[in-house]
Amino acid sequence: MHEYPLDIRGLILRHLQPQHEYRWVAPFLWNGSIELGEYIHDKFLQMRYQILLDVDSSGQGRIIPRAAGIAARQGRLTLAHNLLSAHILGIRPEAALEARAINLLNDEKRKIKRLLNRNREWPQDIWNLQDTPAWIIPSFVRRFRTLVNSRSITIISGGHLLAAGNWVWDYDAKSHVPVRVNYHSNANILPDLD
After folding, report:
1. Does residue 141 sit in helix, strand or coil?
2. Residues 12-53: pLDDT tens digits?
3. Is the N end or the C end of the chain the one with fewer CB atoms within 10 Å?
4. Cβ contact 16:84 at 8 Å
5. How far is CA 179 from CA 54, 84, 102, 182, 186, in A?
6. Is 0.70 surpassed by the pTM of this model?
7. Which tens digit of pLDDT belongs to each residue from 134-162?
């Protein structure tokens, strides 16, 4: 049985390998990789899948592929699949589906804006987002790098649909890819400050 991350990568793998048995895992606990060339030989189609990977969590790009990534990270798989299919087929989705996509983008934008509050940073370079689900952390970090700073940071987030608890994310300077993501009990949530 294969493990697929509950994000756009896993959705793509499921779409490309419908015959495989799989189970979903939290994206930050997945150690696999996705090489589109192994599954798709048509360069145009490969490019369409690559767009989905490139715009996920970036805050930039076309509405439908970005919304597919958000829906996948939230575990809204039917919606994510419909958005992915519309993008891959190159069709404009029905008005209702497009409206849902726009709502996803606006909701994520509002949430990130609320999280970019200096009162959540304590001590310096440690951001307490325990009340925030883990699915939004990749988007938060990309926006953080653009608007706040590029220093090394630590983020404490809430859990994920598939990984309850609090998680500590460590990022190197100028990076939006975590070096480490570790589970911490509430009793010992702050890293050692010595």
Report:
1. helix
2. 999 999 999 999 999 999 999 999 999 999 999 999 999 999
3. C
4. no
5. 19, 29, 31, 10, 21
6. yes
7. 999 999 999 999 999 999 999 999 999 99
Residue 160 is classified by DSSP as B
Instruction: State the pairing for strand pair 126-129/153-157.
Output: parallel
Long-range CB contacts for residues 86-93, cutoff 8 Å, separation at least 24:
87/48, 87/51, 87/52, 87/62, 88/15, 88/45, 88/48, 88/49, 90/48, 93/64
The residue ranges of every structural domain in the chain are: 2-110, 117-188
User: Quick count: other Cβ atoms within 10 Å of Cβ 78?
Assistant: 8
Q: What is the CA radius of gyration of the chain?
A: 17
| pLDDT beyond 50 at 193 | no
What's the rounded Cα separation, in Å, for the pair 55 and 65? 7
Q: Which of 78-82, 176-180, 190-194 has the lowest mean pLDDT?
A: 190-194
Cα(117)–Cα(1) distance, integer angstroms: 42
CA angle 148, 109, 116 (to 5 degrees): 30
